[in-house]
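Consider the tokenized backbone below.
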């Protein structure tokens, strides 16, 4: 695996964006992988060259246990289940022993008056931890707390995924379908 997309999602919007980013990457890089943060490795594979991390923006940044519980309740879950989010995963992630490119994205409400970005927070953590953060933090817009995604966001996510593959060194193949 040369590339890995790790995501956290509360209402399914960030998962859909992560899948679109991954699909875009796979157009040129068949060995890209997609993992929910709960099943993501704490130690990255030695052959990994690109890590993409995505999360919903909650309470002006990366989620916390309390904001995840609130999101689960808003999604209609009667008994919220504690789980790991991107914030905790990044804290537990082993620092890379060699250069690894990284990029981050988030989903956020499309309104000019709501500050904060989970993508910027993750970008800062990855940069501090020795990753080569090669792309600006990217935001994909939802129309309300629960969504849906704004029209065109999944196409934009696929295109962004294709563009991220250019960060890799060495030959990049094309996926066969």
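A designed sequence for it:
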């Amino acid at each position: 695996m040369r590339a890995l997309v790790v995501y956290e999602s509360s209402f399914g919007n960030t998962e859909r964006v992560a899948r679109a980013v991954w699909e875009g990457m796979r157009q040129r890089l068949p060995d890209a992988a997609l993992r929910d943060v709960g099943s993501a490795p704490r130690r990255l594979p030695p052959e990994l060259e690109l890590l993409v991390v995505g999360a919903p923006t909650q309470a002006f940044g990366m989620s916390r246990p309390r904001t995840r519980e609130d999101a689960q309740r808003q999604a209609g879950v009667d008994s919220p289940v504690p789980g790991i989010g991107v914030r905790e995963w990044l804290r537990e992630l082993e620092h890379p022993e060699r250069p690894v490119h990284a990029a981050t994205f988030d989903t956020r409400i499309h309104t000019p008056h709501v500050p904060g970005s989970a993508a910027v927070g993750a970008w800062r953590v990855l940069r501090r931890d020795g990753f080569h953060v090669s792309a600006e933090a990217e935001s994909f817009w939802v129309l309300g707390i629960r969504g849906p995604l704004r029209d065109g966001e999944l196409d934009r996510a696929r295109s962004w995924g294709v563009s991220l593959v250019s960060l890799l060194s060495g030959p990049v193949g094309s996926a066969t379908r």
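The chain has one domain: 3-167.
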